[in-house]
Amino acid sequence: MKMTELQTAIKKFNRLISQYPDNKDSEFNFSNFLKQFLRYKSTDSEICIVSFITIIKYEKPIIYYELRKRGEYDNVIDFIVHLTTDYEKAKNNLQMFTNESKNKVIVR
């Protein structure tokens, strides 16, 4: 996965967090995003998926609960909701990936 794809996904996730309220009607948008994100092939995407679910767990607990309910009949979502890390570490990981391209220097 190119870093720009990863950064685009992180921006989309941040929009989801800010745009959708914490209620069961918003759960579909988050589950759809998570499943689409799993299609990315990169070691960095593994760190991001853990960060995404951790942030959802702490910032959108109702949506997290609805994702867990969906996990009862959706094995992919069931797997994802059991991946968590420290909340601050999750926020820092996403911030690091967002800022990473700004820190790179292109030499020709």
Q: For the CA atoms, what is the radius of gyration?
A: 14 Å
CA distance, first residue to last residue: 22 Å
Q: Strand percentage, roughly?
A: under 5%
Give the biggest sheet: none
Order of helices and strands: HHHHHH
Give a quick rundown of the structure.
With 108 residues, this protein is an all-alpha fold.
How is this structure best described in words?
This protein is mainly α. It has one domain (3-100). 73% of the residues lie in helices and 0% in strands. The protein has six helices and no strands. It has helices at 3-19, 27-37, 43-59, 61-70, 75-81, 87-103. Helix 3 packs across helix 6 (87-103). The relative contact order is 0.18.
Topology (elements, then pairings):
Layout: H1 3-19, H2 27-37, H3 43-59, H4 61-70, H5 75-81, H6 87-103
List keywords for this structure.
mainly alpha; single chain; 6 helices; globular
